[in-house]
Amino acid sequence: MRIVHAADSFAPDVGGIERQVEALALQQQVDGHDVTVITAVGDECDLPLDVHRGLKIRWLTVAFPWLNHAMVATVLDDRDIDVVHAHFTVISPIAIYITRAATKRGIPVAITVHSVWWKVGLATRLSTKVFFGPSRMRAIYSGVSSVVAGHISRTLSRVGRVSVVPNLVNVDWWAPTQPATHRAGEPDFKLVLVGRLKPRKHINEFIDIMAKVRPKVPAGTRVSVSIVGDGPRREQLQAQIDRLGLGDWITLLGNRNAEQIRDLLHEADLFIAPSRKEAFGIAALEARGAGVPVLGYRFTGLVDFIENDVEGILATDDEDMVDTLAKLLVDPARLERLKASTRATAPSVTPEDAMAATYALYRRAQTELYP
């Protein structure tokens, strides 16, 4: 197939959607398809992909995506295209513009939404309807999780059936090769959190949760929380850790490469997924693949691959998160049972699942939009 991906975010930007579009495009090349990416990100990076980038002044592309009409037309008119795969977040100007341009040309469009639309439905309706016109967008919709698919259905009530297309994560690469063991002198409990240090990851709320957990744990319990990632809130988060007296429990490690993160996970007792707006949870699935139980929230995308009390625990709210974590840190036997059941159970979302769902979405676009 000739496939065109349209994404407002892409490498060298760092984040979940950027990683996913890159991984998907690279895998499709391996599968023998002709793949092109169109993005609003003007900065170059070294990737073995055919990438067409928007204006160097990025805000111009965001505010006026049609300024890229010549570049978009060159890609869409170059040869016959089987499908355009548009990747949406909350507001996605270039992806929406390319969806309109493809619709005008009669090219099937499959949309995947990568963000939770909770409490932002108005912004999404404005970006897709008022500014760009619903009649100019003909597409099949999908979300990266059942939670996101539900948000799409509620926000855009006339789009019909919404598919679920999970993110592409090589869970086999993360798998442990030997039993997890604690060495003498190491902390009693090792927790890991991986994510950008940005507000939407709710890491500051998790630090507050740890401050409430600590008085519930016997004095002398040694707890290590390794937070992997960097971002604009690092100084604020470090100040919060110091203010709450959690410096002996929580460490901001900064960025680590995939191999280093995998090593951390293979020695961890629990992975923390603190975001209440987690559309999917790529880092959580990587931890799940590494055999680490996950503690997160049940109203997020984690519900698609974390079975409660088997592969982790999904809390209902912050108070439940405090209570659950405190109980785990005084009951190592329960945590060991969770670790054992996580390692004994194969992840329910695999790369094969992700690719099969993606190609099924393309078939829907081709057969339902232009029968």
UniProtKB/TrEMBL annotation:
GO biological process: carbohydrate derivative biosynthetic process
Domain of life: Bacteria
Residue span, Glycosyl transferase family domain: 180-343
Transferase among keywords: yes
GO molecular function list: glycosyltransferase activity
CDD domains according to UniProt: GT4_PimA-like
Any coiled-coil regions, as ranges: none
Entries under SUPFAM superfamilies matching the protein: UDP-Glycosyltransferase/glycogen phosphorylase
Keywords on record: Glycosyltransferase, Transferase
Sequence ranges assigned to domain Glycosyltransferase subfamily 4-like N-terminal in this UniProt record: 14-172
Protein's name in the database: D-inositol 3-phosphate glycosyltransferase
UniProt organism field: Rudaeicoccus suwonensis
Biological classification of the source: Bacteria, Bacillati, Actinomycetota, Actinomycetes, Micrococcales
